[in-house]
Structures are given as structure tokens and as C-alpha cells.
Design a protein that fits this description.
Immunoglobulin-like; eight-stranded mixed beta sheet; 23 helices; VIT; transmembrane helix; Sorted_by_XrtN; XrtN system VIT domain-containing protein; membrane
Length: about 800
Amino acid sequence: MKHKVLFMKAIKDKLFDPAYLTYLSLLLINLIVYWFTETYHPLPGKALPIFCVHYASAVIAMGMYFTLRRDRREGVFSVILLLFTISCYALNREVELFDQSTAWFNALLLTVSANLLLVRYREYFPRALQYANSFLLGVAAVVYGYLSIYLLPMYPISIPALIALGLSVHTFIPLILTVHVVLIIRKQLPAAGNRWMFAAGMAIPLVVVIAFTVRFNEETTRLNRIFNRQLANSNDLPAWVEAAMRVEKGMVTDRVLKSGFTYRKPLSLDGPFFIPERRMNEPLVHDPLVTIAMNFSPELQLDEESRIQLLDTRFNARHATQERLWGGDHLKTMYVNTRVQIWPRLHLSYTEKMISVSNTSAQRREEAIYTFQLPEGGVVTSLSLWINGKEEKSILTTREKADSAYRTIVGVEKRDPSLVRWQEGNTVSVRVFPVDGQQTRQFKIGFTAPLAANGKLLTYRNSPFKGPRVQNVPEDVMVEFMSTPVNPTAPQYFQRTGNLYTSDKDYQPEWNITFHDEGFHNASFSFNDNEYTLKPYAMQRVPAVTDAVYLDVNASWTMAECEQVIKMAGGRPVYVWTGQQMARADKSSLAAPLQFNFSLFPVHRIPNPATALLVTKSTGISPHVSELEGSDFKKGLARWLARPEQPKIRLLDLGPELSPYLKSLKEQRVFRYEKGGLLLVKVLLDSGQFAADIETPSQVVIDEANLIIGKKPGTGQNSAPDHLMRLFAYNHIIQQKGRGAMPDSLVALAQEAYVVTPLTSLVVLETQKDYDRFGIKDSGNSLKNASAKADGAVPEPHEWALIILVVLTLLYVKFKPVWNRSNA
């Protein structure tokens, strides 16, 4: 009994030792402060003071350590080293030695560090927990040892600096931790079982590292073989496209392709002192598995540009691989304000997003790049940049002038511009420069888009963006319906007040609001002696002769589906593109295309487009047409598209979405388009019909919204907003650009409607002299930047009621004295 009482007293003394609890509390406070500032990111200029707090805590704890009696020091040195570890990572925000670590490595480091604190109490643990503690100590030795080796190139600099600047002690903290863990095993864990578990804890991480390195090596070799084989084949497509068709998507492949871009290796010129030659538009990442594997694998033989294009296509990395003139690693999106106007009876919407972006670095100026995904048929119609606290509106000009001005000012003169540029795939990129250290910049972008129609429902979809870190970013959203919607459905976190929906949550990229389609309001908009009208689009089929069926085959198809279409063709020849030639579709010719990650069907190789039916089903990925520039494939396609008399090809889409390649061609009105299932193939072939082509130079169809916008000479009452004209202009320009239209006439139309197109961009420069120097002038007779305050729409019933009430009140005030005199 006495022994038990002494045992319990010993446990109590260790658990409630005031000195140790003080150190432990200090560690916990530092950990919470670091976690909070790392998760929510400190405001610009606060990173260095926060580091000073962590460093001072560690230094004070170290000084107090030597005042403790020896019998009270147990476990305290571990706490001090962990305080210095937190200080290391806090300093890393200002003086980067490590890139942003992966989540798995952060979790592992936190686990082994917490386990280090448990050594003080391990003698009271059951044997199983003691073994677990020993195992994690072995893992800790590997983790801390790796960090020590990673920082090895810093030692020659840090040793002399240690005498002059105490800060360089941070370089040696991982090494000291490694030695500390080994000493714990030698002095405190004499039992053989514990040492075996410690050895196992060291061995298993090393086995994982070796296995990953072997897999990384194999994948690098395989990618080199695929790329070199495609180079030797000399096809019409670039070798990187052929390789992307065959490369498997996976975690290791992604890391192999990003080695040297997102990941860098130590103990070389790409180590802690050097950055990769080309920076991706995403933070550099520190993944120990990749870092080690890169040092024991052959070099990837794909050139830089081919690797970037392969990543763009296969891994949807177009935002990350955009060319940038300045870095952006320290940028953080701070605030988003979204304002939406919806016209339910016009199937139109206008969205403005105001975004604040901050630079958490103390000194560096950086370039912010955002990529916005627009709805099909949507177009950017406004851009503003705040300069010296004042909102400056953009000017629309040709893409060449805007790019020249931006590159010159950003790359050479380092002053204030912003640029929005059209990209294929319904995306645009916005660039803002400079975002100076410890400063915040604001810009605002607006885009006009049709509402998505699906049966009796209309849907407004938020336009998500990619850019500097957006985790835990506050966003205010206000959605205003310009007439009362019927049976609207919005996310639960929205609050409704009449026709207004609002929310104040963190940024949510994907959300939508749906409501019933009431039918179209008879509305029009007039400008420069032209009237733009709106009417519903309902697909109508007309007779169509089909002499041959072509299958656009890739991994989204099955052999059974292909055989069904061949059977439905009813004796008509069915062809498939094998990658080298157009061949009759059978099991032999279909085998290879069915393995492709995506397909690029050469529509320009169809001999008789007028009597052909192209049946497609896409995986959702592919290069854009512009990314094939310079290849024989692109040259042949461009010559084919430039023929004004070229008939449209009938395209039947069996999949959930078109590939970016087919979307680009669809935007240029290469196809007459229908969407459905396999049964529709039989229906269309048996009936000899297909959707009619009703588009003309004065009429565009936006089938996503089931609407037709027409243009005719004349003027009328402006009962619709100017967004009607903007949508017509954009879709007409895309329609005409690939069909031999003169660019000058299309640029003039874009400038009149103030829309961003493949030919035009919006740009904000700092001074009028900058605009004059680059020959950028605002078109006097144009719609200018769109605005949520723009006029043009017919008043709604409640607005008419308010207007009538105001008029009656004014009449009453004016004529009341006259009435009183006449009745006196």
C-alpha cells in the first residue's frame, strides 16, 4: 500500500510540477499563435514581430533552464527545442529556407514532436504505449535527420554568423533535435524491446522513402520513353500532345512533371539558396519524398515548355503554369465582394467581383494573377484598379497594345498596371502589379453572362476563380433580382429580403441559384443606330443526309458503345481516327484510341463535311486549339477554318461535357450541335434529320440559355440593359473570327461594345502619359465599362409604382395652393 502511495505521489509530482507546466504552457501558447497566424495569415508587416515573440520565448526559456535544479530539468530541454522549432518556422516566413511543407509532413512533424514530450511520463505507460513511444522516437530521428541534411548547405554560412548573429542558431535546431533523440534512446531506453521498436521506427520511413524513390525513378524513365517515342514518330501533333494522350494521371506522375517547378532539390544549385528557372503560378512546395527522389532519379528529358503544356492538359494546371513576370509566393487573397444582378425574364446576369490581395512579405513586390471561369457565352465587360486610393477604370484596346504596355511597365519600369486577357475555355486572366511588401491592392472585374437553361429551370452559376491563397477568406455576396423570381432556390447560408439575397460567409467557389423560367420579356436595346432584340431559342430539326459516321473515340468510350453506333449506322461507313489515319471502325482500329486520355479529332480531314455525322464523347480534358500553334495539325485546321464556304459539321455529343478542343471549335461555330444519349444516334439517322442552323451574321444563338440575340438597323425604346449588345458582340466576334472575317472590323465591334475577346483586352495604366505613350485611346462612341449601376432596363412594376407615387406627391404639393385659393 505504501509503495502504491509513493507511486501515485511520483506521478502527481511529475504531472503538476510548476516549473515544467510553465514551460509546457509557454509552448502551447506559442503553438496556438503560430497556428493561428499560419492558418489565417498575419496582416502585412506582422510576420517579423510575431517571429520576435517566438524567438524571445525560446531564448527566455533557454535562459531559465540553467536556473533549474538538475532534478527538475527532466523533459524541459525537449520543450525548449520545440520552442526553437516553432521559432524556426516563424523565421522561415521572412527568410525562406524551406518552402511550404505538404500537409502530410506537417502532420508527421507535429506527431513526432508531441511524442517527444511524452518521454517524461513513459515509465508510467503500459508496455504497449512504451513501444509506440519508442517507435515514434525512431520516426522522429529520421524526420529531424532529414531536416538536418536539407540545411547542410547553410552550415558554412551559419557557423561564422552564429558568433555575430544569434539568429543563425535556427539552422542547427534540427541537428540538435536529432542528437537529442538518439541520446534519449541511449540513456533512457535500455530495454531491448524499446530499442527494437526505435529501430523499426527508423526503418519503416526509410523503406517508404526507398519505395517512393524507385517508383519516381520508374515514372521518370517511362515518361522519357513515351516522349522520345512520339518525337521519333513525327506526327502532325506536337510530341507533348501525343505523350499527354498516353500518360497516366497519378500522384507520382504529377510530381515528376513538376520537379524543378513546384519542387526543388537541395545540395545543388536548385537548393535552398536558389529558385527554379521558371516559377509556376503556385507556391513552391517542400515534399521530402520528392526532394529525396529527385536526387536519385534521371533528369526528365521533356523540355520546359513541353512539360508545362503537358501539365496544362493532363492535370488542368493552366492557372499554375501561366507566365509571370514577378513572383507571387507571399500573396494572400484578403477579401472578396460579389455583387450580382439577374434579369430572370431576359435570361441575363451581370456579376462584379471586387478582390483585395495582400503581400505578407516585408520587402518583395509581387505580381498577382487570377484566373476566372466564366459561364458558356459569358464575357468580361469591366475592370478597375485602385491607384493611390482612387478607383481607376480600364480602357479597351487591342490585345497587342495591352500586352506591350503591361510587359514594358511591369518588366522594366515596375509601376502600376492591371490587365485582363481572354483565354480559351471560357476563362480570363487578371494581372495586378505591383503588390508591394506589407501592402494591399484592390481590383474589380465585371462580366456579363447568360443564365443556364435546363427545361423549365434557369440557373445562375457563380464564376469561381483561382489565385493567391483563398483559404478562410471572408466574402460578402449580394444577389439582386431585377424582377421577382418564381420559386427560387439558393444555398442555405443565403438570407433573402424581397428580391435580394445576401451572405457573409467565407469564400465559396461553387454555388448557384435556380428558379423557374417564366418565359421571355419582349425587350430590346439600341445603340449607334442599331437595335438588339431578344427572343427564345427552340431547337428545330430539318432534313439532313448522312453518308458517313465518324467516331471521336477516347478512354470515355467502351468497345460496346462503339459497336452499338456501328450497328445503328445501318450500313453507312463508320470511321475512327487512330492517331495516324482515318480507318474503318472495327475492334482492331478501335483498340488503341480507346486507351487515349483524350482525343483531338481532325475535323479538317473529313472529306465531305456536309454529309458527315461526328459522334463524340469526351473525357473533359484536351489541349486548347491555341496550344497547338506551329504544328502541322494547327496549320491544316486553320486553313480549313478560313474557308468562308465551309459547311458546318453535325456534332452529336454523348458525354457530360465537351473537351476544351471541341468547345473552342463550337464557339467558332464549326458545328451544328445536338446533345443526347446513344438512342439519339439511331433516331437522327433513321429520321434523316438534325438541328437546323439558324445563325447568321445578324443573329447569334446561345443554346446554353435558350436565347437568340438579333441585330438590325434602327432605334427603339431601351427596355433591356446594355448587356444584350455586349453578349451579341462577343458571340458574333467568336463566330466570325475563324471564318475569314477581317480583324479590324471585329476589333471595332469589340471596342463599341467594350468586351474582352481574343483580339482585345482591358488595361489600367497609372497615368494618361502611359496611355498616350502606347497609343491606347478610349473609343468615344462606345458602351464603356459595364456597371452594376448602369441604366437601360425597363422599370419593374414596383419601380413604376414608386415613380407614380413620387409624381402624384409632387403634383399635390404644386397644385394644393391653387386648389385652396380656387375653393376659398
